[in-house]
Amino acid sequence: MKNKKPTTAVALHYDGKEAPRITAKGSGDLAEEIIALAKEHGIPLQEDAALISLLSKLDLGDEIPQALYTAVAEIIAFAYILSGKIPEGFEPSPEQTEL
């Protein structure tokens, strides 16, 4: 029997004005529901165990801490690019423009 670690998911909302906030989080079946809803609505997913570990300690509605701004900003910028948008003030590196 395989000991599979339970799935954990954290959803963020970013309005471009304030720091991103935790809008949903959970593990196990709840995490699977969060992931399924994101896929259903075309919301990009990012797998990062270290970041999930830190974000899952926050409460619903909490802004992400300043220490995580860079990591989360990179994910948000990538999500914008995937959807054909460029975040205001973002200048992609030469590697990113080759996507």
Structure report:
The termini are far apart. This protein is an alpha+beta fold and 99 residues long. The protein has a single domain (8-97), classed as name from scop (3-Layer(aba) Sandwich). The relative contact order is 0.17. It has a two-stranded antiparallel ribbon with strand order 1-2. It has helices spanning 29-40, 49-55, 69-82, 94-97; strands spanning 8-13, 21-27.
- The top-level CATH class is Alpha Beta
CATH homolog superfamily: secretion proteins EscU
Largest sheet: 2 strands, antiparallel
CATH architecture: 3-Layer(aba) Sandwich
* Percentage of residues assigned to helices: 25-40%
Q: What's the rounded overall pLDDT mean?
A: 87
Provide a count of the helices.
4
Structural class category: alpha+beta
Please compute the radius of gyration using only Cα atoms. Answer: 15 Å
Sum up the overall morphology in one term.
globular
Q: How far is the first residue's CA from the last residue's CA?
A: 40 Å
Ranges with pLDDT <50 over ≥5 residues?
none
Q: List the secondary-structure elements in sequence, H or E.
A: EEHHHH
Portion in strands: 5-15%
CATH topology: name from scop
The strand order across the widest sheet is 1-2
